[in-house]
Design a protein that fits this description.
The complex is a heterodimer of chains A (270) and B (221). With 270 residues, chain A is an alpha/beta fold. Chain A folds into two domains: 190 residues, Rossmann fold (3-Layer(aba) Sandwich); 70 residues, no CATH class. Chain A contains nine helices and twelve strands. A six-stranded mixed sheet of chain A has the order 8-9-10-3-11-12, with helices on both faces. In chain A, helix 3 crosses helix 4 and helix 3 packs parallel to helix 5. The longest helix of chain A has 17 residues. Chain B has 221 residues and is mainly alpha-helical. The radius of gyration of chain B is 21 Å and the shape is flat. The N and C termini of chain B lie far apart (56 Å). Classes of the chains: A alpha/beta (270), B mainly alpha (221). Chains A and B meet through strand 8 and helix 3 of A and helix 5 and helix 6 of B. Chain A: It is found in: Cell membrane. Chain A: It is a peripheral membrane protein.
Chain lengths: 270, 221
């Protein structure tokens, strides 16, 4: 068992990033996917995560939302997410605590995962009404605003099966935003899209970055897009951050050999 | 022995009343099975492994023993432990329990057919477990379950004659009684067969229509 007393119960105001991964290790059986990860993400920062498949980049997001970790602690907005306080000590978070602690974190998926039996509007209202306890009227107003923002207000009464991939992903973004998250996780949100509709989704994301003080972590294969909108890019390799930095530095002047290899491989594939 | 139309018409009112009872028995039993089956399916998905194991074994036990034994058991063994049930109550418990085991398997298959991404989306919205099941997963598990549920509706309907062994006044029971009184079995049994056929035959079509209706209602086509 790991000694959890080395981790603070809460992060102090003077050193409080929006997301902190501290010594985080994630294993699937004998396979270590993330190895002693330390990563801070500041409030309002837009961080892109790139790397070859199997490098653990998607796992970084999934640990904030879907999965338990085997070592270390993750903090969101200064509070532990993976652990909770009990009698002045950190212990493994219960399901109930996790559900609550994850409320400030929203996520969009590669395959959208919209609820197929609900309209676009109902998809957006589901979280606010059921989880935040908002009135239907207020949730509807908020959802309509967000569908307006992603340019789909005229499709609000359509079911996902009637929408294109790009439209579904925009509804999924609106659905995630309806929970007023502080952190938004974007997991390869353009990977399953036809090339001609990728633009409509990236436009929406660009709008979010400029207009809202939203912290965004994005796993992507689109290097051009990552470069254009990120404050920082992290290159993952073998479950660790191999190199990170401002997009211009990392893309134009990569220091590590693996980064150089990866970027040139991606470039020649384009 | 020749078919006697006069006798046929004479016993028809009694047969039709019994048909009503058969439909009520099937309907009640199915209602019990539909609800109980869902709980049996959900209980097998809880993280409590002991509960999962007990329910799993219970379902296996019910499915591996004859319905008629279960009916006898509830009706005749119950009173020896002070549980005195009327034929109707005992019959509904037995047949409802029996079919709940089958329906739980149908639900299980339906729930497992819902893509894992739907669970992840629920998690990403922090939906509670009950909201996740009842608002998101089960509605989607329904369309692929309708065909199997329909099969067991026809099944429970055709199994109601077994309730005659404990004296529930359904069709088979009425036919037996009429036959015994008049020493004529041809007409009552034939009528039973025809009535079952008339109700069972169109049901496959009705179920298909219902399945399409459910999908449309849920906006999934």
């Amino acid at each position: 068992m790991e000694d959890l007393s080395q981790y603070p119960l809460e992060l102090p105001e003077s050193d409080k990033p929006m997301v902190r991964f501290q010594n985080v290790t994630k294993r699937y059986g004998a396979l270590t996917v993330l190895d002693d990860l330390n990563l801070d993400i500041a409030e309002g920062e837009m961080v892109s995560i790139i790397g070859p498949s199997g490098s653990g980049k998607t796992t970084v997001l999934r640990m904030l939302m879907l999965e338990r970790i085997q070592g270390g602690v993750i903090y969101v907005d200064g509070k532990p997410l993976t652990h909770m306080q009990q009698r002045g000590r950190l212990v493994q978070a219960s399901e109930k605590y996790l559900r609550q602690a994850r409320e400030p974190v929203g996520m969009c998926f590669q395959h959208f995962n919209l609820f197929p039996h609900m309209t676009a509007l109902q998809n957006c209202m589901e979280g606010p009404v059921q989880v935040l306890g908002m009135s239907k009227k207020n949730a509807r107003e908020r959802s309509e605003e967000l569908l307006e923002l992603v340019g789909l207000i005229d499709k609000k009464d359509q079911h996902p099966s009637r929408l294109s991939g790009g439209q579904q992903q925009r509804v999924a973004i609106a659905r995630a935003l309806a929970m007023r998250p502080k952190v938004l996780l974007l997991d390869e949100v353009t990977s399953a899209l036809d090339p001609e509709v990728i633009g409509e989704v990236t436009e929406v994301i660009k709008g979010l970055v400029s207009a809202h003080n939203l912290t965004i972590m994005m796993v992507t294969h689109q290097m051009g897009f990552a470069r254009e909108i990120s404050d920082r890019v992290c290159f993952f390799f073998g479950g660790k951050i191999e190199e990170q930095g401002a997009p211009a530095d990392l893309f134009d002047n990569p220091q590590r050999e693996r980064t150089q290899q990866f970027l040139s491989a991606v470039k020649s594939a384009d | 022995m020749e078919w006697n139309w006069e006798f046929t018409w004479e016993i028809m009112p009694r047969m039709l009343v019994a048909t009503g009872n058969t439909l009520i028995a099937a309907g009640l039993g199915y209602s019990i099975a539909i609800v109980l089956g869902l709980f049996l399916a959900l209980a097998q998905r809880t993280p409590i492994s002991l509960l999962t194991l007990i329910v799993r074994e219970f379902v296996e036990f019910i499915r591996s023993t004859p319905l008629v034994l279960q009916i006898f058991f509830v009706y005749y063994v119950g009173p020896q432990y002070g549980i005195d049930l009327s034929p109707w109550v005992a019959g509904m418990i037995a047949i409802g329990l029996h079919y709940s085991a089958y329906l739980s398997e149908v639900y299980r298959g339906g729930i497992e057919s819902v893509p894992v991404g739907q669970w992840e989306a629920c998690r990403s919205l922090s939906l509670s477990t009950s909201d996740t099941y009842f608002r998101i997963i089960i509605p989607q598990a329904l369309p692929p379950s309708v065909a199997g549920m329909g099969n067991y509706l026809v099944g429970i309907f055709k199994d109601t004659p077994m309730l005659s062994v404990i004296g529930v006044a359904e069709l088979m029971h009425a036919a037996n009684a009429i036959g015994g009184q008049h020493y004529r079995y041809l007409e009552p049994y034939t009528i039973v067969g025809v009535i079952f056929l008339l109700i069972s035959l169109p049901s496959a079509g009705v179920i298909r229509v219902f399945e399409t209706w459910v999908r449309r209602k849920l906006g999934m086509i």
